[in-house]
Amino acid sequence: MRKPPVPSPRLADAVAVHGHLRPHETALIHDDRAVTYGELSDLTQNFRHHLLELRLPAGSTVCVPAHKTPETIALLLAVFHEGLVALSPTPDLGPAALERLSQQARATQVLTASDALRAEPVSADEQEAAGFAAADPGRSCLLLTTSGSTGTPKIVPIAAAGFEAFASWATDEFALSSGDVALSYAPLNFDLALLDIWTFLRLGAQVVLVDQGRATDGPYVQGLVTKHAVTFVQGVPMLYRLLVDDGSANPAVRQVIFTGDSVPDSLLALVSAAFPRARFHNVFGCTETNDSFIHEVDPATQTGKMPIGRPIAGTDALISDPDGAIVRSAGAGELLVATPFQTDGYLDAALNAEAFTVIDGRTFYRTGDLVTRDESGLYSLQGRADWQVKVRGVRTNLQEVERVIAAHPDVVEAVVVPLPDEQAGVRLHAHVSRRPSSALTGLRLRTHAGQNLPRHAIPTSVHITDTPLPRTSTGKPDRNLIKSNRLKEIHP
Questions:
Q1: 413 DSSP β-pair partners
Q2: What's 377's DSSP letter?
Q3: Are 371 and 381 in contact (CB under 8 A)?
């Protein structure tokens, strides 16, 4: 039987070859600890032995929470080598949410790694898994999740062929080599890790892992860039605000990738000065399709909202107007994309009909993003077609957050609104009407949210009242008034 791909046919084997031929070259930096390719290979082999002792059925799925450590990376490589499928969600999920997600993916074990492998069986629940397809180890051995803000986000298989095509494209586009050093700022479970961790390890390059607990510590992050002579930086605007804070220059950096929210002109000028020898690109995409657009940015001429650019080679992009008709020339509407890197579909088959559509024989993903396209074919992002906002560059559905909060037994109604935030781009505020005689507090409600939501989706502030929510003339909660009142409290 053919051994399954691991997220591509070459990744795990390539890392193993680096361990054999270049054992003393650094693979990973974590907390001032350098892990060589030889050590990474040894860690992987050790975990492979432990996996064999578990006697897991061939091709079965395991859950590996994405703690951003060398041990977790080695464990994932071991899982790939053994022909298993790895579900790798955020480690910030509460226990109940993690169990539901594992059950939906039909994972048999939750595996965590430190000095030794720890395995916790998952109780099978056919009702929870109903409607979810089993992952196909012949097509994908890595399952990521969308940034859905309930405890059970959508499960996205990363196609092996898609990863291979993406890694090859990125290597050529950014002229990457084994001599490069990537700063990996985003969490391990983000699709950004396909580039700044997995593609770099595939090349035999070096990856500097940012400790997620210190990701807002500017001097710490800047110190990593300087100390390790980082050449490649990828991240959301908040990362670059941290890196320009002390005014230092980083001449070793030669590629700067903007992702997530648009970079304002004031920040772009500072970034240009901080990375005097770098090329700058704005890259746009999502977990379902990976990167789909790229725009090379010239800080000297860029003004106004930064475009998302033009489709990456091999990508088709369409715009659908409000009536569902395809806009064939300049215009505006919802963005549909088909990339060489995209998933075959969610594990939850019921979601695929709405999210994916076949046009002219090719499968397109409905992004929910509203864009414009000018006469030259340049695309610009205008916003979201649904209730999603981006918190620290992570798509977050406000209605889903509201559902989790409203599930608390002491909550009558809840509204969640986005507020502007200089660092995060957007932060969430919850306005909650509680039941009479309830002792519900903001702390208790945020604890409840933390058990069922990833960290970025937990409201930063909570207003609890014993009175009904304010209403519009049509009887709906007055979100604009709630947002306005909160902003007045912050900025009287």
A1: 433
A2: S
A3: yes
CA–centroid distance for 70 within its chain: 19
Contact 325, 332 (CB under 8 A): no
Token representation of residue 224: 């990593």
Q: Looking at this protein, which amino acid is placed at residue 127?
A: Q
CA-CA-CA-CA torsion for 243, 246, 250, 253, nearest 10 degrees?
0
Question: Phi first, then psi: what are they for 440, rounded to 5°?
Answer: -60, 135
Q: Check residue 463 and give its pLDDT.
A: 95
Quote the tokens at residue 299.
Answer: 């800080």
Q: Would you say 321 and 225 are in contact if contact means Cβ atoms under 8 Å apart? A: no
Q: Note the pTM of the prediction, 2 decimals.
A: 0.80
pLDDT, tens digit (0-9, with 9 covering 90-100), for 34-84: 999 999 999 999 999 999 999 999 999 999 999 999 999 999 999 999 999
Inter-residue contact 193 to 218 (CB < 8 Å):
no
pLDDT in tens, 262-308: 788 888 999 999 999 999 999 999 999 999 999 999 998 988 889 99
Average pLDDT of the segment spanning 418-441 = 88
Give CA–CA dist 467/456, Å, rounded: 28
Per-residue DSSP letter, 156: E
Which residue has 């595939």 as its token pair?
202
How many other CB atoms are found less than 10 A from the CB of residue 255?
Answer: 20
Q: How far apart are CA 182 and CA 201, in angstroms?
A: 10
